[in-house]
Fold these 3 entries.
Entry 1:
Amino acid sequence: MKLRPSDIDPTIDAALKEDIPSGDLTSECLLSAASRSRAVFLAKEAGVLAGIDVARRVFERIDPGVRFFVLFRDGRAFEAGDILGEVRGPSISLLKGERTALNFLQRMSGIATRTRRFVEAVAGTGAKILDTRKTTPTLRRFEKYAVRMGGGENHRSNLSEMVLIKDNHLTLVGGISEAVQRARKRVGRQGMIEVEVGDFEAAREAVASGADRIMLDNMPLNRMKPVVRWLKGRVPVEVSGKVDLERVKRIAELGVEYISVGSLTHSFRSVDISLEFKEGR
């Protein structure tokens, strides 16, 4: 569940190189190397936390002597005015890490906060909220972790994990039955095969071909309802396409197992969190 340093350090190092290619000119002009400070991560609005350990790792990569205190754990809801963490150490080191740490923390918390809203909207229906691969290039591991902190679950993390036959595959292969047959030959009986469909007949064909999961893509609710009813007990059903907070509960109440929401990672709003320097060390 946690993000391991070995998984995230290369991305953090790249972000630091982008922001501090040859030092922090302003801080180094104004402050002595002996100056030490204390600063707190202050929530300016309510949200769900994700990325506090990433923020800590940013400072560790800059200066191993910096001390970081986690006051709120990832996955916990917070309110405006809450202090989420504290950092102490050389003033220049803290200023060097401020923006990069906040960039990760604000964005990841934004994803976790948006995910929590979707999870709460379908509470009691049995439906699970999934993410997609619509992530920021090179930041997928961070963003999918944030989805989990918001209470969602991860769909496949990459193209190597499972077979998901979509409309473009079907255009190139020629049909659902042929596509499932080819995939099954490659992955065997244990491999997961999901098929995206847009109508009832395609769903029937996918089930008859041996698909393990059906994805109903961009279907209106009135067309989706009889398909879900027919699929119930045959294979798990996932719904995707233009899922928003107004529509998600009505979809869940149809009895589907999964609802994938691309906007969790492509249309979130960063949470307003600041790093405030305090008197005393």
Entry 2:
Amino acid sequence: MRRKVFDLLASLGGVVVVVMLVVAGALSMWGYNFANSSVHSQLAQQQIVFPAKGSTELASPKISPYLDRYAGQLMTTGPQAKAYADHFIAVHLSEMPYGGVYSQVSNASRANPKDAALAAEVQTSFQGTTLRGLLLEAYAFSVFATLALWASIASFVLALVMAILVGLGIRHSRRTPDDAELLTPPAAAPRPQPNPV
């Protein structure tokens, strides 16, 4: 095979890889934008505001170190949702009877159907664990968004590197003589002549 033909075929394959990487990068960027904007809009619609700095709600050492940085802010990001779910709702649930675990509170309430306080705890536990789960799901989608962003950046960088290699391959093919072969057999070594003695 001629070296020039091989260089052009390899460059054409490189162009295909560049196109695939650009498409992958564009799709990953779309995924990032979709997930990120969905998390933001869904959380903003709930209008959950973190307690104000210095409030009694942030006085607990189990809560304050994690929520002080968000004090008074509207919840709009995945990390905010995780902090609120794990260090505000979870703390308050853990202070309830049965640790706020819905199944345990519900079982206790069914065993004592006339206990109105326990029935109220069931509702509170259900609402708290549901909201916590939804907020943690929003956080998970924000992590997927971040992964999609990094995948997009990596795809675009690799596409750029591949495009440079394609350019070098095309340049090399133009400099290669038309009759150059890809694999030229090594020149035969001269046979040693016997020494006439």
Entry 3:
Amino acid sequence: MKILVTVKRIPDPDEALKFTDGGLDYSSHKRVPNAFDEYAVETALRLAEKVGTKERQAEVVVLSICPAGQRQHVTQFLAMGADRGAVVDVDEDTLDTITVSKAIAAIFKKEGADLLIAGKLSQDNEGNQIAQRVAGLLGAPQACFASHIAWDKAGNSLTVQRDVDDGVETKKIPLPAVVSVDLRIVLPKSVQNGVTPADHAYQEGPRLASLRGITMAKRKKVATYSLADLGLSSSGTEQEVGVTAPPARAAGQIVGSVDELVEKLTKEAKVL
């Protein structure tokens, strides 16, 4: 099996954003890997490996749409254990979700992949559109917000669970398919691949790159494509009109008694 995993670099969520005229200033902002993409790569690696051996039953390819000279996050995922990388060389901030989805679908077809794994959303805009759009473009079955995955190799299918308001929803989908993952997918027993013992417990969370992994990452191949190579151009159907800061919060009030507090909550705030 060949697993394609989408990965993205985003402005560091721990840094304060600066507002400029009509937008946000990213010029001095550090870029970091999207956390949900780390969960996606970890999911792919757990599906691919047989714990305790060097055997792999799947190839893991990470794909990013970003400037080719700024692909440090791709190297980080290769150091985690992904086999190869692919980059669509373009400024991702100039693209809309339709073009991004078409590019991912084109690489999926070019690679002849069997499974696309994506994080459920990107932390910078929380759009939650890409995986669903790609599935539509490919005409492939999809399962979103996966919290547990079991691979049936003989049946060429996946059984996917996700948490819903009243419990757990389970779907069985044939391959090739598209899956987006939630944070619970990196719990110790959330991924079953049929060869690693079912009672094996991984360390919770995505793995850290080892020193050997960092060294090997520099030798792994990363293919570079342009939109033109994929027969695409930016559709420009989505545009950022402007970004404004939220209004400043009003100063708090001091009350002299519980009765006064209740009255204000009842008559002024109207929350009681």
